[in-house]
Each structure stands twice: as C-alpha cells, then as structure tokens.
Design a protein that fits this description.
- There is one protein chain.
- With 461 residues, the chain is mainly alpha-helical.
- It has 2 domains: 6-184 and 250-460, Growth Hormone, Chain: A (Up-down Bundle), CATH 1.20.1250.20; 196-249.
- The chain has 20 helices and no strands.
- It has helices spanning 6-27, 33-40, 43-72, 74-93, 98-113, 116-126, 129-160, 171-183, 197-220, 225-247, 261-290, 296-301, 304-324, 327-343, 353-356, 358-381, 388-408, 410-413, 420-444, 450-460.
- The radius of gyration is 21 Å and the shape is globular.
Length: 461
C-alpha cells in the first residue's frame, strides 16, 4: 500500500480487517458442516440452516446497517458490530444443540451486517477516482481471500481440534481492528438521517419466511401449508418492503439508486455471480468430505489456488478497471469462471484432486480475480459519496441474498442428496449462473464510468 497516504492506509487496513471477520465466518463454516452434523445431528437440513441463519440476518439487516452507518457514523457502527460479533461467536462455539447453534448464528449475522457496509463506506467516503479503485482492489483481494481461505482454516480446526474452535478464529482480527479504530480520526458527525426500522423488519421477516419454505420444501412438498403459507407470506412482505421504499422519506434501499445504469446492472450481475460462488463453495466443502472421503483440511485446501490468485491478481484488476473501465473484466471474468465450473464435471467415482478439481480451481480463481474488484468499483463508483454507505449496503445485501437463496435451494439443485450426480448438477447450475453474470455485464455496464456522467449531462440538456 505504498501508493496510499498514511490515513488511507489506516482506512484500508480497518476496512479489510472488519470485512475479513464477516466474510471469514461466512465461509469457514463450510468444511465444518459434516462434523457439526455428526455431533449435533440433523443431516443436510441442519447444514443448510447453519449457513442460512447467518445469511438471513446478514442479508436482511445489512440495508438497515447501511442506513445506520450514514446516520450515526461509520466508526461507531463498526465498533458496535465488532463487539457484538465477538460475543455471538462465543455463543456459537458453545452451542449444545442445533437450535441454539442456529439462533447464535443468526445473531452473528446480525452483528456482521453492521461491519460490511461501514467498512467499505470508509473507503468510498475518503477516496475517489483511481485511488479509490486501487483501494477497492486491495479490499477485494483480502476480503475475498478470507472467503476462500476460510475453508482451509476451518478444516485444520475440525481435524486437529474441534469444529467449535472454527468460530473463534475471528477473535484476533476483531481485537486488532478495535485497536486500529481507536487511532482513526475522521470528521464524522451524526447526520440526523431518519432510520426506517419498519422497512428493516419487513425485509428480515419476509426473507426469513421465504428461506424457511425453500429449505423445508424438499421434505414437506409445496402442497403443505407449512411451506406455501410462509412462501406466500414472505413474497407479500418483501413486496410491501419494496412499496415502502417508494414512499419512505428515508428508505433503506432507495430505488432511485437503480436509475443509475452501472449500479442497477452491476447489482444484477452481482446476484448471478455471488449465487454461483455460494453454491460452488457449499458443494465443494461438503462433497469432498462426504462424497470423495477427504479429511476436512484437505477439503479446505482444495480452494487454496483460488486464494493465491485472488491475492496476486485482484488488486491489479482493480487498477486496470480504473483505467480501462470495468465492462470487459466483468464480462470475461464470469465466463472464465463458468469454464472452471464445467471442468468440475470431470470429478468421478475414482476421485483424483490433481486432475479433476485443481484445474477447475485455477481457472475459477483467475476469472474471480478479474471480476470482483471491477464489479465493486463499477457499482460504488457510480454513486456519489454522500450515499456511499447505503450503496455499499445494497450491493452487499444483493450478494448475501444471492447466496442465501441458492443455499436454501441446494436440496432441489442436487436432487435431495449431494452424491456424484448432485455434485455434477450443482456444477452445471454454477456455470449457468456465471454465464448469466457475464452476459448481463456486457449488456448493461458502460465501457467507461465517464460515459455515465456524459449521459447524465446530456439528459439534463
């Protein structure tokens, strides 16, 4: 970070560490799922809920957190989130049964919702232009690496200690971030912006009801009132949430943001790309243990090539996108990743990581490195600084909702069992989602962000 001023380096370090905590805990659980199921019971349904309980509150409350960040200051909201996340992590590690574990995971997701928009908004509020693009590239490299290295760390803890220690990994980064926050001096004052708590409730309950129906549907069927009633209720509540955003004086998700072309199309691309990443991460972490018979550490190591490529290439991709525009990278990157997903069809009953999985991980890592930083820069660079917090929250909410819904549908995608046929089905769906992400980016994203401003000026004329 030699090209950044001292304050900018401090901001980037805080943003990376705070987001690292949230993203790490979202993915480190993947390789622990078989061990959790063996000790606490519940099968694939419990595994889905352990992942989705975290994602439900993270997704639903991240919009509210973005509004709180803009209203009360990013540093204060981040500090509260870090402390709450640490407490919730202790509760997860000590859970005696699946119900307590799922509730604690939901509380952990709620705390994590306070961290992501605040951390990225620190960057977008203190840097603009090429410096911002480079900073987002650094942020993307390390936070995405957290998502990818999480399974490796989780595997080591599961194999040599216990799955419970997996949820205590974040203690050190939380402590370091709190120390760095105490050194940060920014001229932040409460803005007096109203926070729409009712919208937050509608979004949270609506998403929760819909996800419950998607997870339980394979065992109960759509004809069951326990399924269609919450599904219908979730859709109605989310529709009411959107309707309220049109009328609210302080909406959690200002629909006017979606009139900005790059923001709207970029979020649609985010939906497809992050759904694919979540699906791929879940099936790789679980199948390599339950299907291929690998220990948790080896299953975690499977994604290491992606981590290395993200660290080496992502910050450069952010800088390239700052000069050339994000459209090319956001198109080519997902298409390369789709090729990597299709390479996973080579996995067979006679499992061989080096020939059947490693090539796919390398290709997907290269595509991911080209995609994520330009995608983030295109979306947030299209929005003015005053609304950076809520813009970051909306984009992160879209990414988390994508993962939330695809994990809830995993039983349907894999045909009820994550065997070899189910694994291949998941690979095909992953590839299809990534192709959609690339096509959407090519159609919707401007070649250069400056074109957005030119169109706006021409429209005013």
């Amino acid at each position: 970070m030699a090209t950044f001023a001292p304050l900018q380096r401090l901001v980037i370090a805080i943003a990376v560490l705070a987001s690292f905590v949230t993203f790490l805990d979202g993915t480190v659980v993947t390789v622990a799922l078989p061990a959790i199921s063996r000790e606490l019971g519940g099968g694939i349904i419990t595994q889905q809920w352990v992942v989705d309980a975290y994602l439900i509150t993270l997704s639903a409350l991240i919009l509210l957190a973005g509004s709180l960040s803009d209203a009360y200051g990013r540093v204060l909201v981040m500090r509260i989130g870090l402390i709450a996340f640490g407490i919730a992590s202790l509760a997860v590690a000590g859970a005696p049964d699946p119900l307590v574990l799922i509730i604690a995971r939901a509380l952990q997701g709620a705390a994590g919702a306070l961290l992501v928009p605040s951390s990225l908004a620190l960057i977008t509020a203190t840097m603009r232009g090429g410096v911002q693009a480079r900073a987002i590239g650094v942020w993307t490299a390390f936070t995405t690496a957290a998502q990818l290295v999480g399974p490796l760390l989780g595997g080591l803890f599961v194999d040599y200690l216990s799955w419970r220690f997996v949820f205590l990994i974040n203690v050190v980064p939380i402590a370091v971030t709190l120390v760095l926050l105490a050194r940060l001096r920014l001229p932040e004052r409460p803005s007096g912006v109203r926070v729409d708590w009712w919208s937050g409730a509608l979004c949270a309950v609506g998403l929760g009801a819909l996800v419950f129906a998607l997870i339980e549907q394979p065992t109960r069927g759509w004809a069951s009132p326990m399924i269609w009633a919450p599904a219908a209720g979730g859709v109605v509540l989310f529709a009411l949430f959107l309707a309220r955003q049109r009328r609210s004086a302080a909406p959690l998700m200002p629909l006017s943001l979606f009139r900005v072309r790059d923001f709207a199309w970029g979020n649609l691309a985010t939906l497809f790309v992050y759904a694919a990443l979540s699906l791929n991460g879940f099936v790789i972490g679980v199948y390599l243990q339950q299907g291929a018979g690998l220990p948790a550490t080896a299953a975690g190591l499977a994604s290491l090539p992606m981590t290395i490529l993200m660290i080496l290439v992502s910050s450069r991709a952010g800088a390239w996108a700052g000069r050339l525009g994000p459209r090319l990278f956001m198109t080519v990157g997902p298409l390369v990743m789709a090729v990597g997903a299709l390479l996973l069809l080579a996995v067979s009953e006679h499992f061989d990581y080096w020939w059947q999985v490693l090539p796919a991980m390398v290709v997907m890592g290269l595509g991911l490195s080209l995609t994520v930083a330009p995608l983030t820069a295109a979306i947030l660079g299209a929005i003015d600084e005053a609304r950076s917090g809520i813009a970051s929250a909306v984009n992160n909410a879209v990414a988390r909702v994508a993962g939330l819904l695809v994990v809830a549908m995993i039983s349907t995608i894999v045909g009820g069992s994550l065997d070899l046929a189910g694994f291949h089905s998941a690979a095909l769906v992953t590839a299809a989602l990534l192709v959609l992400g690339g096509v959407v980016s090519w159609i919707g994203i401007r070649r250069n962000p400056a074109e957005e401003q030119q169109d706006a000026v021409a429209g005013e004329a």
